[in-house]
Amino acid sequence: MDSRSRIFQARQQARAVKAHADIALFELHRRAVDALMGPDAESVVQKASDQIRKWEAGRLCSQHYIDAWRNILSMPPDAASKAILQPDGDGPALRQNTPFGFLSLR
Length: 106
Hints:
Elements: H1 3-36, H2 41-58, H3 63-74, H4 77-85, H5 91-96
Protein backbone atom coordinates (compact mmCIF):
# COMPACT_ATOMS: atom_id res chain seq x y z
CA MET A 1 0.00 0.00 0.00
CA ASP A 2 1.46 3.35 -0.97
CA SER A 3 1.60 6.35 1.34
CA ARG A 4 -1.38 8.05 -0.32
CA SER A 5 -3.55 5.01 0.28
CA ARG A 6 -2.42 4.79 3.92
CA ILE A 7 -3.19 8.46 4.45
CA PHE A 8 -6.60 8.09 2.81
CA GLN A 9 -7.37 5.02 4.93
CA ALA A 10 -6.23 6.79 8.12
CA ARG A 11 -8.46 9.76 7.32
CA GLN A 12 -11.44 7.50 6.68
CA GLN A 13 -10.86 5.75 9.98
CA ALA A 14 -10.51 9.06 11.85
CA ARG A 15 -13.78 10.31 10.32
CA ALA A 16 -15.56 7.12 11.38
CA VAL A 17 -14.27 7.42 14.95
CA LYS A 18 -15.34 11.09 15.07
CA ALA A 19 -18.79 10.27 13.69
CA HIS A 20 -19.24 7.57 16.35
CA ALA A 21 -18.19 10.01 19.11
CA ASP A 22 -20.56 12.68 17.76
CA ILE A 23 -23.47 10.22 17.80
CA ALA A 24 -22.68 9.22 21.38
CA LEU A 25 -22.53 12.88 22.45
CA PHE A 26 -25.81 13.62 20.69
CA GLU A 27 -27.47 10.71 22.53
CA LEU A 28 -26.07 11.93 25.86
CA HIS A 29 -27.59 15.34 25.15
CA ARG A 30 -30.88 13.78 24.14
CA ARG A 31 -30.92 12.23 27.63
CA ALA A 32 -30.02 15.64 29.08
CA VAL A 33 -32.96 17.24 27.28
CA ASP A 34 -35.28 14.50 28.56
CA ALA A 35 -33.96 15.08 32.08
CA LEU A 36 -34.46 18.85 31.77
CA MET A 37 -38.10 18.21 30.88
CA GLY A 38 -38.64 15.60 33.58
CA PRO A 39 -39.34 15.57 37.31
CA ASP A 40 -35.64 15.82 38.21
CA ALA A 41 -35.04 18.93 36.08
CA GLU A 42 -34.07 21.13 39.03
CA SER A 43 -31.46 18.64 40.20
CA VAL A 44 -30.06 18.24 36.68
CA VAL A 45 -29.76 22.01 36.25
CA GLN A 46 -28.05 22.24 39.65
CA LYS A 47 -25.50 19.54 38.80
CA ALA A 48 -24.78 21.09 35.40
CA SER A 49 -24.42 24.52 37.03
CA ASP A 50 -22.03 23.06 39.61
CA GLN A 51 -19.89 21.70 36.78
CA ILE A 52 -19.86 25.08 35.05
CA ARG A 53 -18.73 26.74 38.30
CA LYS A 54 -15.87 24.21 38.52
CA TRP A 55 -14.85 25.03 34.95
CA GLU A 56 -14.82 28.72 35.76
CA ALA A 57 -13.00 28.41 39.09
CA GLY A 58 -10.31 26.20 37.60
CA ARG A 59 -10.18 28.00 34.26
CA LEU A 60 -10.88 24.63 32.66
CA CYS A 61 -13.06 25.82 29.83
CA SER A 62 -13.40 28.80 27.53
CA GLN A 63 -15.54 31.62 28.88
CA HIS A 64 -17.54 31.36 25.64
CA TYR A 65 -18.79 27.89 26.62
CA ILE A 66 -19.31 28.86 30.25
CA ASP A 67 -21.51 31.78 29.20
CA ALA A 68 -23.32 29.75 26.54
CA TRP A 69 -24.17 26.90 28.92
CA ARG A 70 -25.30 29.29 31.66
CA ASN A 71 -27.58 30.95 29.13
CA ILE A 72 -28.97 27.60 27.97
CA LEU A 73 -29.61 26.42 31.53
CA SER A 74 -31.60 29.61 32.20
CA MET A 75 -33.89 29.01 29.21
CA PRO A 76 -37.30 27.34 29.34
CA PRO A 77 -36.90 23.60 28.63
CA ASP A 78 -38.19 23.72 25.05
CA ALA A 79 -35.78 26.53 24.10
CA ALA A 80 -32.92 24.79 25.92
CA SER A 81 -33.71 21.62 24.00
CA LYS A 82 -33.42 23.42 20.66
CA ALA A 83 -30.13 25.05 21.67
CA ILE A 84 -28.61 21.82 22.99
CA LEU A 85 -29.62 19.65 20.05
CA GLN A 86 -29.03 22.12 17.21
CA PRO A 87 -27.24 20.24 14.44
CA ASP A 88 -25.14 23.20 13.32
CA GLY A 89 -23.91 26.51 14.67
CA ASP A 90 -22.68 26.16 18.25
CA GLY A 91 -24.53 22.87 18.84
CA PRO A 92 -21.72 20.42 18.04
CA ALA A 93 -19.09 22.49 19.88
CA LEU A 94 -21.31 22.86 22.94
CA ARG A 95 -21.85 19.11 23.03
CA GLN A 96 -18.06 18.65 23.00
CA ASN A 97 -17.83 20.93 26.07
CA THR A 98 -20.74 19.65 28.12
CA PRO A 99 -21.69 20.07 31.76
CA PHE A 100 -23.87 16.94 31.47
CA GLY A 101 -21.11 14.34 31.72
CA PHE A 102 -22.65 13.09 34.96
CA LEU A 103 -25.56 11.72 32.91
CA SER A 104 -23.25 9.29 31.14
CA LEU A 105 -22.83 7.49 34.46
CA ARG A 106 -26.52 6.66 34.70
